[in-house]
Amino acid sequence: MTGPGDPYNQNGAEGPGPNQVPPPGHPEHGHPFPPRPPQLPGPDGTRSDHRDRALPEASAWTALLSAVPWFFWSLVLVVWVAGAIGFGWGWIVIAVWILSGALIFAPSTEELLAKHLFRLRKPTLIEQQRLAPVWHQLLQRAGVVHGRFSLWIQESDEVNATPTPGHTVGVTRWALYTLPPQHLEAALAHELSHHLGGRAWLSLIDFWYSIPARGGLIVVRAVARLMRRVPALGCVIGGFMVMAYAGIVLAAITFGHGYVWPILFLTPFIAPPLLAWLSRWRVKEADKKAAMLGYGTTLVQVLYGWQMQHQQSLGRDGSRRAQVMSSTPSLVERVHTIEQAAGIPPAAWGNH
Prior knowledge:
By secondary structure, the protein is mainly alpha-helical. The chain has 12 helices and 3 strands, in the order H-H-H-E-H-E-E-H-H-H-H-H-H-H-H.
């Protein structure tokens, strides 16, 4: 693996060394990368400078929709803990949890979330040297104030990093070490687009109040793994959990007024497909914004290069259930989205 400050050989030239394989799209493959794409105007015919300071876009408000089931189950768990303590002191627990949202305004909070929950790391000095020029140019093109977002590295061989809340922008190790500068800039444009349009603070609030529910989900998955490893113990634990949950749902239906509470208690069965669809939609929205910034052609080449290197199919693999529950769209869906957003015919994407 080559270093980020010297991506292809020891001499700093952007050509493969004697024992190295050139990355997808290198001129030695017969289809060199095109020049940097021109900046495309936004829907109103002007540059999209400072659009992230306007009112939140539709993709931002969908974060609130996805936050409903997470917040509800977080509240259920916090109330359960408060009840176990005793509601005399338990109300203090509930109040502290609600007021803890003020912590998201502390810069150290986002850093702790990035390190310990998303398993990201800060770039090294050499990696910063590779990232700084393309990151600075991207921020200028997007009209974003320098220093508003921070770059972190995700140890992953995927084409894009896991979307993170707040002002933390992740980039994968594969993109950092494999892509030449203009293609790395296109990959960063996609990552940055997840945070534009008013999503930064909304996504951070959404994630913060979902932490108890996400912790509960981790416990449930751990119990499920235990049930598979120890069937006898698993049957006892699983039976108890099923009966307890069924009793809660039955009580909500019997004593609740209307259908809101029963539906909320059924969200573990209703919400996952909806949340997966919203996640796929957000990825395509980020692709659209990157294309509108002028990175459509290069971003498509990044997707094709990753697909060729990892021998992945353009469509979705697996069963129908896996497709419905997938949080990322297929590569062909992303390519179609970029083509439509940029308004460029497929012949302009390059010889792939």
